[in-house]
């Protein structure tokens, strides 16, 4: 089950970003992409035209199967070469407005989740389907997607316009906030359920799951958002939740406010005891990242994001599905903690550690559950609400900042308890 959790794949992005070697000086301005894409699901071909401003200094990354037809800057052609299959180096770039035309066939399924075929178009970072800049800098985007008119199109942006022509559908989107990915997901098989309640718009897309199941899921997500808002204050991207059961196997990922999970996995869960509870728990974890994306994801401080998302998902599951399921989760956390492969402290666990998941997600949840019973749920929420309010929209929270806030609000005993547990090499539950 853990291997199917979408949260598992966030570190891949962090690792990918870290693997990208630097190639030039840093820019301070947030890059803006205007990306026009035409997709032919029947052949697997995509044709793209992208404008990036400001231009990257000298290089970008793009999937090796995609043919770069032309690069221009300030109206002039820019010479370029592929240094490796995905790294493209440009020479003598003088202007700040870069235009790249590229096209090609994405006939292969990338990383199990990205593909272009007659039943499903799913494009995200994993396929490197748009030029990725050095260091994985955050950017804003405008996306114009041109697909067959029987395809339902979903992205991680805000829909601006929809226009049908001939047998095609054009949709225009802009990013909600600076992010690191452009997700384009479309299929003729998707059905939609949506509801706007208390200014929260929840959209769920699915293909084969029973409609009643989806309706129940929608209600639980809406009430979950409301509960998190009570606990931690309003979320960073207010009022939008787009949840897609993508008609495929493979893993899931979240690009707030978009969550993409495998519908095949959800269908298989329905056959299991607590399957619905597990599906909800996974969704609640991802939803909690609306609040818990306040620490860097590529340093050991990521335990703050993942630990708080998992703890938040745990408490919602506990409230929704009861003691028996909550006890089962705690038993699993404990079993996994006891089976840790290394003796590495939670706050010192790097992304490549085999204990990354158990340390950042599971031991931390046990830690928060223990802290809740020691210091009180509302008192602990006071600390969490302050951290979210102060740091939402940044990734600046470190273990030291977390411990300071605990000390301020819960006192020195509490911060000593957290510090000891976070820095102890061997896992021991007190
Ligand atoms: Zn997560």
Keywords:
430 residues; alpha+beta; Immunoglobulin-like; Neutral Protease, domain 2; five-stranded mixed beta sheet; 9 helices; 20 strands; disordered N terminus; binds zinc ion
Write up this protein.
The protein is of the alpha+beta class. It has three domains: 28-187, Sandwich (Immunoglobulin-like), CATH 2.60.40; 192-284, Neutral Protease, domain 2; 300-423, Neutral Protease Domain 2 (Neutral Protease, domain 2, Orthogonal Bundle), CATH 1.10.390.10. It contains nine helices and 20 strands. The strands form four sheets. An eight-stranded mixed sheet has the order 5-4-8-2-1-11-14-13, with no helix packed on it. Strands 16-17-18-20-19 form a five-stranded mixed sheet. The protein is globular and about 65 Å long. The model is unreliable at 1-27 (pLDDT under 50). The protein binds zinc ion. Zinc ion is lined by residues 7, 10, 285, 289, 306, 309.
Summarize the structure.
Helices cover 34% and strands 26% of the residues.
């Amino acid at each position: 089950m853990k291997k199917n959790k979408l949260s598992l794949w966030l570190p891949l992005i962090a690792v990918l970003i870290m693997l990208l070697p630097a190639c030039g000086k840093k820019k301070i301005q947030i890059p803006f992409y205007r990306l026009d894409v035409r997709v032919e699901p029947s052949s697997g071909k995509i044709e793209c035209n992208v404008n990036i401003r400001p231009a990257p200094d000298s290089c970008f990354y793009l999937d090796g199967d995609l043919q770069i037809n032309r690069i221009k800057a300030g109206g002039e052609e820019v010479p370029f070469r592929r240094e490796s299959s995905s790294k493209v180096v440009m020479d003598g770039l003088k202007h700040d407005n870069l235009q790249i035309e590229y096209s090609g066939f994405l006939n292969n399924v990338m990383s199990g989740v990205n593909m272009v075929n007659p039943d499903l178009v799913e494009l995200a970072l994993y396929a490197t389907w748009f030029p990725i800049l050095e260091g994985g800098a955050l950017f804003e985007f405008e996306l114009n997607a041109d697909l067959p008119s029987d395809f339902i199109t979903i992205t991680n942006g805000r829909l601006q316009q929809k226009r049908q022509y001939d047998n095609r559908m054009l949709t225009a989107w802009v990013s909600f906030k600076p992010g690191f990915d452009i997700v384009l997901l479309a299929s003729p098989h998707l059905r939609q359920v949506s509801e706007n309640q208390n200014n929260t718009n929840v959209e769920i897309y699915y293909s084969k799951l029973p409609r009643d199941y989806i309706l129940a899921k929608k209600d639980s997500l809406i009430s979950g958002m409301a509960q998190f808002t009570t606990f931690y204050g309003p979320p960073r991207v207010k009022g939008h939740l787009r949840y897609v059961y993508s008609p495929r196997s493979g893993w899931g990922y979240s690009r707030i406010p978009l969550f993409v999970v495998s519908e095949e996995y959800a269908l298989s869960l329905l056959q299991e005891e607590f399957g619905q509870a597990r599906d909800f728990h996974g969704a609640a974890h991802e939803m909690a990242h609306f609040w818990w994306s306040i620490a860097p994801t590529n340093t050991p401080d990521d335990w703050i994001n993942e630990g708080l998302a998992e703890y938040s998902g745990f408490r919602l599951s506990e409230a929704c599905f009861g003691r028996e399921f909550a006890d089962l989760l705690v038993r699993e956390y404990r079993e996994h903690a006891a089976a840790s492969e290394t003796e590495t402290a939670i706050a010192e666990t790097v992304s490549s550690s085999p204990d990354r998941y158990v340390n950042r997600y599971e031991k931390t949840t046990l830690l928060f559950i223990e802290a809740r019973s020691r210091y009180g749920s509302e008192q602990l929420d006071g600390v969490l609400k302050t951290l979210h309010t102060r740091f939402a929209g940044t990734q600046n929270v470190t273990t030291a900042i977390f411990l300071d806030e605990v000390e301020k609000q819960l006192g020195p005993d509490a911060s000593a308890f957290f510090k000891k547990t976070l820095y102890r090499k061997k896992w021991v539950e007190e």
